[in-house]
Design goal:
The complex is a heterotrimer. By secondary structure, chain A is mainly alpha-helical. In chain A, 87% of the residues lie in helices and 0% in strands. Classes of the chains: A mainly alpha, B mainly alpha, C alpha/beta.
Chain lengths: 282, 292, 248
């Protein structure tokens, strides 16, 4: 898909339009295929016998592998946000809101997106490679020939593990991010800690936390679906596996930001509607 | 252990759950010995040292002929051109998102959205332009470079290179270093521009095109653009060096390639974030010193 | 449609195409209960495709494939699960799960199809390893550390763990040294005797054919040009058969 998109520049206008339509069609087909895949996985989520051992193992592996990077990235990104907003808010004298704005931003936007992207990079790519290799070396066919359905046996545990861990690790990452932010504010920027914390609680609402949680759940589903799909449907050879990993990274990133935008747009539209309704009523 | 479970826990599901938990605890215990922690720490420092040394070596080769211009240009195409769709898409969405977010935040805090373009501009030039673009660059280009190099390693092409007295670092890393620097500068600028443009697009009811950019220019300074390019330059060696470091160390067939790729991407992104943090705090400190 | 005769496995006028290339051409075959049927043919003649269609991994364009009293070619993936338990396919490359130890590989099907206790599973795995003449110590190893021949035997153990009534071998001796190949041939016969299974062996190994098969079919250009008991096959005057036999 990327290859075709690149050649846009070098062709005439009709070719250009044609290519755009083709790519749009491919896009819809791609989204549809993954949606169908997700549906198939969801249908088989609770299939008996349930792979308890596999699920436990996957939860452990996913969690352990991602813990470090979520902690490090969460801590430093928390600090980065504080530094940037400290500068920006300082420009129009709104420094007092530092604690509130950064925490709110972290909870609503940065936290879920950052953790999801980190896990997509670490675990998503890994699962795509793992499943892709299994597909290419006929291990998945071997599972089928043992009279077992590879989806509940192999994919469901990984899917559930990713969704669960993205959710849990977002909570973890948010806490670390807050600590990092507060620490940076206090130690690096010399901001008075109580000054920082003052408006934090005032400006941070439960809805921000809730929004963050819902987002992380949705992002978890995105990362899990994309990585399992690319791996399970990898084409032949080592190049096929490489392409699956590449596609997982790229598509995960794009979908996370796309869905994030859709959610933000929905919220903003809802707010505007609510305001105008209140305005007309009141 | 499992015999006990079979005897005392009748429910099959609970029984399997218990056995599974015991399995996991056993593996966790194995993973958490002092030896493994020490091992991991050692590997961590080894990686940092190795990466820095690789970077220095590749820099040294910059001045040595022969200059493989064609190789550099080939890498530039892969690095820059092919990443534009991803960068465009992601930064576009980010632009939309930050404006929506800032609208929300600022309307609660100061009651109006007048400062949104200014803030959006600052964030786009100082953070999202360089850092997020670099992370996406690492995910796309870093991954493919790491896959390429690790494939060469396991198919013994690296050994073949050394046999014909071509230094693999000079041949593989240095061209990518240059390509990465050039392209990341360009991509960061493009990314920041896209983010800013789409930021305007979503706040059209509040600002006209001109008004938006005038408000932005009130808060965004040339220094911010300078920050953009400085950060891009500083971030640029991270991706090729990490890709090469893990690629040249790949072992074990297709799985080795996958491992090298994943590690390269994750390490690149983490390094970018950490560097970003220290650059920001440095800049802040410098600013304070300059102002005082 | 009903199968005619007592054939346990039957292909009826089967056609298979990949794109525009016809790989299986109007092929019919009946495999008798308890025999070892050998499918001989050049590389790429369509041998593997046949047994993959029997296991339901591929579907024919035309024709019928019968296993006992059911049509395999019409089955859904879900229904095929039972077919595959009865009819075990052993791949050409061992396809062991490389993230699991040998023990877990063999126990894979056992754990999920039956509700055995740990002790029973251990006993069964040990039994299976003995059946394929492997040292039980191997159970703790990871597949990548075993020789190719050992891996093949582990994959055999994994398949027969489910007690299938039919075994489909895809090129069992290809890539093995003559000594190990002979061991595998021996094993194929032993398993038929001990487990009362019907086997189909797909291969181009003439030595294997001589040692193992009851009947042989030569597959050429997508169809059988000769099917006969091994003795008669070797003496056949069919020019295609002669050309194949003399190519060695």
């Amino acid at each position: 898909m990327e290859e075709r998109a690149i050649n846009l520049w070098s062709l005439g206008i009709f070719h250009l339009l044609g290519r755009i339509f083709i790519n749009l069609g491919l896009l819809i087909e791609g989204i549809g295929a993954r949606a169908i895949f997700l549906w198939q996985v969801v249908l088989k989520l609770a299939k008996r016998p349930f792979e308890v051992r596999e699920l436990m193992l996957q939860l452990y592996l996913v969690g352990v592998r991602s813990l470090g990077i979520v902690a490090v990235s969460g801590f430093f990104v928390g600090g980065i946000i504080v530094i940037q907003f400290n500068y920006a808010l300082g420009l129009f004298g709104a420094r007092v809101y530092l604690g509130g704005v950064t925490t709110s931003g972290l909870l609503r936007e940065v936290g879920p997106v950052l953790v999801a992207i980190m896990i997509a990079g670490r675990i998503g790519a890994f699962i795509a490679a793992e499943m892709g290799t299994m597909k290419v070396t006929e291990q998945i066919d071997a599972v089928r020939c043992l009279g077992l359905d590879p989806i509940p046996v192999l994919l469901v545990p990984r899917f559930l593990a990713v969704v669960t861990m993205v959710f849990l690790l977002t909570i973890f990452g948010l806490i670390i991010g807050l600590v990092g932010g507060a620490g940076t504010a206090w130690l690096l920027l010399g901001v008075n800690l109580s000054y920082y914390l003052t408006n934090l609680l005032k400006l941070t609402t439960v809805s921000a936390l809730l929004l963050g949680m819902v987002k992380s759940f949705i992002f978890g589903i995105l990362v899990a679906t994309i990585s399992c799909y690319e791996g399970y449907c990898a084409s032949a050879g080592a190049e096929g596996v490489g392409r699956a990993v590449n596609r997982t990274l790229v598509y995960s990133s794009i979908s996370i930001f796309l869905v994030d935008y859709i959610i933000a747009a929905i919220i903003s539209i809802t707010f505007t509607l609510a305001k105008s309704i209140i305005f007309t009523i009141g | 252990m499992s015999e006990w479970a079979h005897k005392h826990v009748k429910n099959a599901f609970l029984r399997t759950l218990l056995i599974a938990l015991l399995d996991v605890l056993y593996i966790a215990r194995l993973g958490l010995s002092f030896e493994s922690i020490g091992d991991n720490l050692l590997r961590f420092f080894e990686t940092i040292g190795g990466v820095v040394w690789l970077f220095i070596r590749s820099l040294l080769f910059l001045g040595m002929p022969p200059y493989r211009l064609r190789e550099i240009l080939k890498q530039t195409d892969a690095a820059g051109w092919r990443s534009i769709p991803l960068i465009g898409a992601v930064l576009g969405f980010i632009g939309l998102i930050i404006v929506l977010e800032l609208n929300f935040q600022l309307s609660r805090v100061v009651g109006n959205t007048a400062y949104v373009p200014g803030l959006a501009g600052i964030l786009a030039f100082r953070e999202f332009g360089p850092t997020v673009v670099a992370c996406m660059f690492a995910a796309k280009v870093g991954a493919s470079w790491a896959a390429e190099i690790s494939n060469m390693k396991i198919s013994e092409q690296i050994d073949a290179l050394e046999m014909s007295s071509v230094n693999p670092v000079k041949y593989l890393v240095t061209p990518r270093l240059l390509a990465s620097a050039a392209m990341l500068l360009a991509l960061s600028a493009i990314g920041a521009a896209v983010a800013v443009l789409l930021g305007w697009f979503v706040s059209r009811q509040d600002f006209s095109f001109m008004a938006y950019f005038i408000m932005m220019s009130k808060f965004t300074r040339y220094a911010d653009v300078g920050t953009l390019f400085t950060k891009a330059l500083v971030f640029s060696p991270v991706v090729p060096v990490c890709a090469a470091w893990y690629g040249l160390r790949a072992r074990g067939g297709a799985r080795g390639v996958g491992e090298a790729t994943t590690k390269a991407v994750v390490t690149s992104i983490l390094l970018i974030i950490v560097l970003d943090f220290f650059l920001n705090s440095l800049a802040d400190k410098l600013l304070k010193i300059v102002l005082e | 449609m009903e199968p005619d005769g007592a054939g346990m496995i039957e292909f009826k006028r089967v056609w298979k195409k990949f794109g525009s290339q016809v790989v299986v051409r109007d092929l019919s075959l009946k495999v008798e209960d308890g025999e070892i049927f050998f499918i001989l043919g050049k590389t790429g003649a369509g041998k593997t495709v046949l047994i993959r269609m029997l296991a339901g991994l591929l579907k024919p364009e035309q024709g019928e494939i019968w296993l006992e009293d059911k049509r395999v070619d019409l089955m859904t993936e879900d229904a095929l699960k039972d077919v595959r338990r009865k009819c075990g396919l052993i791949f050409q490359s061992p396809t062991l799960f490389d993230s699991l130890r040998v023990f877990e590989n063999i126990a894979f099907g056992l754990r999920r199809h039956f509700d055995f206790s740990e002790a029973e599973i251990e006993a069964r795995v040990r039994n299976l390893l003995e059946l394929v003449h492997l040292d039980p110590q191997i159970a703790d190893q990871y597949p990548e550390f075993l020789s190719f021949g050992m891996q093949k035997r582990v994959s055999l153990a994994r398949t027969i763990a489910l007690e299938p009534k039919y075994l489909l071998y895809d090129e069992p001796t290809t890539g093995l040294d003559p000594f190990t190949a002979r061991q595998i041939n021996q094993l194929i016969k032993e398993l038929r005797d001990k487990l009362q299974v019907t086997s189909i062996v797909v291969s181009h190994d003439l030595e294997s054919m001589r040692e193992v098969s009851d009947r042989v079919g030569l597959l050429e250009d997508g169809r059988f040009v000769e099917i006969a008991p091994t003795g008669e096959f070797e003496k056949s005057s069919n020019p295609l058969v002669r050309r194949f036999l003399e190519a060695v």
